[in-house]
């Protein structure tokens, strides 16, 4: 049994206003080209297909084209669950259109699916959200846990009078009560896979640990995921590829693209190729994904050096966070010059020397509000404000 596991596409996500759609499209095409040569039985997409419950039309168009082309070029069962960024109902709304392409989309953990053929994949049974598939003479039981929240369960999970640690325990207990009844529908003589979008204890967002929740998602202990009864557990939600727990069966694929500057510290992005042999021995290999447009952090020792750097590197395909050492605040003219050469500068951060910063602060404290306004205006527009504008500003300030 061969599985390809990916997640967290976040289609439509931008970087401080800069579109990432071109990179996202390149990844989707890359994945199809790889998958078409790998002959997987199942392809898993473990949530956060979109970055928003109401994604831009172009993001949906890219994903629908991706599904059609992936189905056309593989004979894999394609199984998708929603993440916390997705609208489950919207994502599952295309079920009638994709059934003939061998694509199965969950909306909720207890969904019921019609038995029969989905392209070359046969659903033999569907009970309490557990589907039994037959593909390439293999029988596979799928347990799916789309992102679960209090709202999506439509019932109260937490006692809000409790502290965070007790709320986390309540969430784990609730999650266990969802998972455990599903185990009665699986068999040791068949392959058994769990797909979930959640945050597990001791897993890392980037290179740091967290507390009990991230973005409203409570962290759960890996012990509630019954790895001893399952052959593989495919997770989404965290953007860093990693194993979760110590069973050797639970993995995050990570996101396919570096979505912020902290992620660039992690290893190369990848999706996972999972092989399970007839004796249920597991092999997990990373398939590295190219960096389609890197995120860079630049350091300049002066505004003049920053301008020269942006000129010299203007043709580099990169998003840039620029840090500039300076004795005075950067002028609007400096900023315009820097950005006139390098278009994809995400942020320019001046690093003022401490002594100069204190001097500027003390100097400003000695000035009147009118003097401060005149200095600000001169710095911004390279000219002094006229008397009427100064008068209007002071009237607004005093009233």
From TrEMBL:
Signal peptide: none annotated. Residues 1-240 form the Calcineurin-like phosphoesterase domain. Keywords: DNA recombination, DNA replication, Endonuclease, Exonuclease, Hydrolase, Nuclease. GO terms for biological process: DNA recombination; DNA replication. GO terms for molecular function: 3'-5' exonuclease activity; endonuclease activity. The keyword RNA-binding does not apply. InterPro entries: Calcineurin-like_PHP, DNA_Repair-Maintenance_Comp, Metallo-depent_PP-like, SbcD. SbcCD cleaves DNA hairpin structures. These structures can inhibit DNA replication and are intermediates in certain DNA recombination reactions. The complex acts as a 3'->5' double strand exonuclease that can open hairpins. It also has a 5' single-strand endonuclease activity. Belongs to the SbcD family. Heterodimer of SbcC and SbcD. This is Nuclease SbcCD subunit D. The lineage of its organism: Bacteria, Bacillati, Bacillota, Clostridia, Peptostreptococcales. The gene is sbcD.
């Amino acid at each position: 049994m061969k599985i390809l596991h990916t997640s967290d596409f976040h289609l439509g996500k931008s970087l401080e206003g800069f579109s990432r759609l071109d990179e996202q499209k390149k990844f989707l095409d890359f994945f199809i080209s790889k998958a078409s040569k790998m002959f997987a039985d199942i392809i898993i997409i473990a949530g956060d297909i979109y970055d928003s419950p109401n994604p831009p039309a172009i993001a949906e168009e890219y994903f629908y084209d991706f599904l059609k082309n992936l189905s056309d070029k593989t004979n894999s069962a394609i199984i998708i669950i929603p993440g916390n960024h997705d609208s489950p109902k919207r994502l599952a709304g295309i079920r009638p259109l994709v059934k003939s392409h061998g694509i199965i989309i969950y909306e909720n953990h207890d969904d019921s699916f019609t038995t029969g053929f989905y392209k070359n994949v046969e659903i033999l049974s569907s009970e309490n959200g557990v589907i039994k598939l037959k593909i390439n003479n293999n029988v596979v039981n799928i347990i799916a846990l789309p992102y679960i929240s209090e709202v999506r369960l439509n019932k109260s999970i937490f006692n809000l009078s409790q502290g965070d640690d007790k709320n986390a325990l309540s969430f784990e207990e609730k999650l266990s009560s969802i998972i455990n009844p599903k185990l009665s529908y699986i068999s040791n003589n068949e392959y058994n896979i769990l797909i979930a979008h959640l945050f597990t204890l001791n897993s890392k967002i980037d290179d740091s640990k967290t507390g009990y929740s991230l973005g409203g998602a409570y962290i759960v202990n890996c012990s509630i995921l019954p790895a001893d009864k399952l052959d593989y557990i495919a997770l989404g939600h965290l953007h860093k590829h990693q194993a979760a727990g110590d069973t050797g069966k639970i993995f995050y694929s990570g996101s396919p693209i570096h979505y912020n500057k902290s992620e660039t510290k992690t290893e190369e992005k990848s999706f996972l190729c999972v092989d399970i042999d007839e004796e249920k021995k597991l092999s997990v290999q990373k398939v590295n994904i190219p960096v389609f447009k890197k995120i860079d952090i630049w350091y300049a020792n002066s505004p003049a050096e920053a301008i020269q750097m942006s000129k010299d590197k203007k043709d580099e395909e990169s998003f840039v966070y620029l840090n500039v050492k300076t004795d005075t605040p950067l002028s609007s003219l400096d900023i315009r010059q820097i950005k006139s050469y390098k278009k994809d500068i995400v942020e320019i951060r001046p690093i003022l020397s401490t002594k100069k910063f204190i001097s500027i602060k003390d100097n400003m404290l000695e000035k009147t509000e009118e003097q401060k306004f005149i200095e600000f205006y001169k710095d911004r527009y390279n000219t002094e404000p006229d008397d009427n504008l100064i008068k209007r500003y002071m009237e607004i300030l005093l009233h």
